[in-house]
Each structure stands twice: as structure tokens, then as C-alpha cells.
Amino acid sequence: MMFVSTRGGTPPVTLSQALRLGAAPGGGLFMPSEIPRHESTRFAAGRPLAQFAADWLRPFFDGDPLAADLDAICAEAFTFPVPLVAALGGDSSLRALELFHGPTGAFKDFGARFLLACFDRLAGDEPLTVLAATSGDTGGAVGCAAEGRRSARAVILYPKDRVSPFQERQLTCWGDNVAAVEVDGDFDACQAMVKAAFADPRLSASHRLTSANSINLGRLLPQVAYCAHAAFEAAALNTGNRPGFIIPSGNLGHGFALLLARAMGAPVGPVVLATNANRTLLDWCQTGRYQPRPSVATLANAMDVGNPSNFERVAALGDGAAEVAVELAHDEAIRHRIAADYRDSGYVWCPHSAIAAEAWRRLAGPARDERLWVAAATAHPFKFAEIVEPLIGRALEPSSALAAIAGRPTARQRIAPHLADLAALLEQQRVAA
Ligand SMILES: *Cc1c(COP(=O)(O)O)cnc(C)c1O
């Protein structure tokens, strides 16, 4: 299997090269040169996720040096449960796919752990430098996944005063090979610095820079696997129609992963991409035209994206993106959904997952009742306690993993939003290591 750029024009690369490079040269994103199709009779519900994932992902690793390690990589990455929960009671057609039982309490843990497990086998003698800009959950998951590894150090840039207190804590609490860097600027400034660093051939080569944002296919492959796994599980619960899926979407990595799983033969029915007030995807769905917009700030901040970077991949799927709807929820609807579902059923959504629950509510009655619907519950509500607690009128308990983060010491560095400052910091990190 080879991988090609969404924008064409560059020679195909192996999976290992695609993971190491992150983005394709020329700014495109890597896609498999063909979509592998599985005989669905080879897959069934009830298998442990790590084994299922290795089998589901095997075609992508075909012919790559990482192929021999695929089982081990999956065993390392998939170590926590992914329950499918009847959040609103067994009579409702809604199931929450809880993706937040990993060490940093969001689905980003899957991608980060899988990618770093791949880097362990790709790095060779000298460590890679994983450079990431973050406004939410990615930085914490990457820092956690990188901690203590010899194959990689992580440098994570985040915007000053724009992340929540818990988010800042989980960016700044990892070991020596993880540097949390507070940038005196906004998220766009952080992202611009990362892009400038990758575009500087000397800097990029001397630090062996690589990306852990969702442009990197290695972040998305484990998501393809758990989406397919959940589809078989949900299909087994209700043997009539294939389950529908509702995905809270920002950069569209998650949505793309689900559509790829469906294109590969997973029993996924209709798909709803659920967004916050950032309306780029809704406009695309209604008009057929894709027009990026500036992002607007919402309660679901990990989805505050006006130009989803993985849109190119969804577009490249062609027919694979058929039967996709978009549903948009404003902050008011997020608040209402969290409060009302807690009152009626005792279940607590995070602000992102609440948008998926709201999208399910808005389905027409027959569409809602004719099949099971799987809503991706993307983060643990405790991570957004300052939003959720006043709505439900009680304190939230952290998971044990999140409680452990709250007890760790933190450290950060500060820089101005200039490439020269980042270059100096990278050099200093190397000397320290
Ligand atoms: C990253 C994130 C999303 C959005 O996922 P995309 O793959 O960027 O669409 C939604 N919810 C949470 C909690 C996230 O961390």
C-alpha cells in the first residue's frame, strides 16, 4: 500500500514515510492510494479492540517495515475500554461511544499513543521532535504519549490565556522530554510558527521535526479502527438497520476516520457531523460550496475551527462522503442539552458530546427510531467542569487518570510568537536532552 497527496503532484510514499513527514510536500494531506475493502463476514462483534484494530488496519501496513509490529503497536495504543453506553436509557435509540477513558480523558489519546508507538519504531538512533500547536486536547494527549520515550521529544505550543485551567495543567505536567511553551499570541499565531518551522528546511532537518496534529495519518488510523469496531458492536445489538453515527467535528479528523471505516466496509449507516457555531461545514452541506471562515469561540472549544484541515481528505473520498448530514448547535443549545439530559437521565455530557446528543434529538422521529445511533462522546465532562457543573448543579468527580494529572507538578516556558524564538528554544531543548 502506498500513500498519495490529496493535491497530487508528489511521488507516492510508504506508510512509514507518510507518518514521518506528517503533511505531504506542497501542503496536501496523505491518503491511501486506494481504499482497502474488507469482507465484513471476516469481522464480528465481541472481539477485543486491540486485536480487531490490528486486523482492520493491516492493509494500510502491507509492505511497510512497520507491518511486523502492527499487533504490538495496537496492543500498546488500545489499553483502555471504549464502552457503548445507553446514556439516555435502553429504550432510546441513542448510544454514547465513550472515548474518554484514556490517560488524558479525550479521544485524542488513541491517536497520540498510536502515533508515538509508531515513532518508537521509526525514529532510529536520534529522537524525533514532535512539534504541535494546540488549543485544547491534542497537546495534553501528545505530551502524555511522548513522556519518557527515547524516540521522541515533544514541543507543544499553546496560546497564552486561551486555554482552560485544566487544559493548561495537562499541557504542562509531563516529564523532561516534553516542553510546554506558552506563546504570547493566539492559536493562529502558534499554528503559524509551527508551519514556519516545518517550512524551514534547516530547522526541520536538524531537529528531525514531525507533526502530531490530525494532518498526520498516524493520528487517524486508530480512529478508523475504533469506529469500525463500534459499528460492528452496535450492528450486533440491533440486527436490522446499520447504525447511524453522530460525530462532534472540528478539524474533521474524526469524521473522516468514520467515513473511511464505512468506505472499507464497516456497517455504518447515515453519518451526522455535529458542529458548534462554526458554520463552514453546514454551509458546505447546504450549498455544496466550501468556504473557510474565521473561527468563532464557543463552549466546545476543541471544535472552534473555521477551516477544517481534514476537509481535503473528506472531499477526496468522493462517493464515500455520501449520506452525510451536518447539524449545528449554538452555545445555548449546548447548555440546554447538558442540563436537560442530566435532569432526565442522569447522564453528563461534555460540551462537545452534548452537540452530538442535540443532533440526535433533532433527527425526525422515524429516522431516529428506525436504527441505533452512536454518538461519539469525545471528552470526559470533568475536563470542562467550569462549564458543566453550574448546568447540572453538582460537582463532578474526575476519573482516576484526570485526578492524577491534577496532582502533578507543572512547568512551562514562554516565548514571543517569532520563529527565531522557537528555533532558540528547540536548540536549548536539544542541549538539555
Ligand atoms: C479534537 C476534539 C473534537 C474535534 O475532533 P476533530 O477530529 O478535530 O473533528 C471534538 N471533541 C473533542 C473533545 C476534541 O478534543
UniProtKB/TrEMBL annotation:
Tell me which residues bear N6-(pyridoxal phosphate)lysine.
108
- Which pathway is this protein engaged in? Amino-acid biosynthesis; L-threonine biosynthesis; L-threonine from L-aspartate: step 5/5
Highest rank taxon of the organism: Bacteria
The coenzyme or cofactor needed here is:
pyridoxal 5'-phosphate
> What's the family?
Belongs to the threonine synthase family.
The reaction(s) catalysed by this protein are: O-phospho-L-homoserine + H2O = L-threonine + phosphate
UniProt keyword terms in alphabetical order: Amino-acid biosynthesis, Lyase, Pyridoxal phosphate, Threonine biosynthesis
User: Under which name does UniProt file this protein?
Assistant: Threonine synthase
Give the Enzyme Commission number. Answer: 4.2.3.1
Which GO terms label this protein's molecular function in UniProt? pyridoxal phosphate binding; threonine synthase activity
Q: Where is the Threonine synthase N-terminal domain?
A: 3-78
Q: Which organism is it from?
A: Sphingomonas kaistensis
Domain (Tryptophan synthase beta chain-like PALP) spans 97-370
Q: Which SUPFAM superfamilies match?
A: Tryptophan synthase beta subunit-like PLP-dependent enzymes
Gene Ontology terms describing biological process: threonine biosynthetic process
InterPro entries according to UniProt: Ser/Thr_deHydtase_PyrdxlP-BS, Thr_synth_N, Thr_synth_N_sf, Thr_synthase-like, Threonine_Synthase, TrpB-like_PALP, TrpB-like_PALP_sf
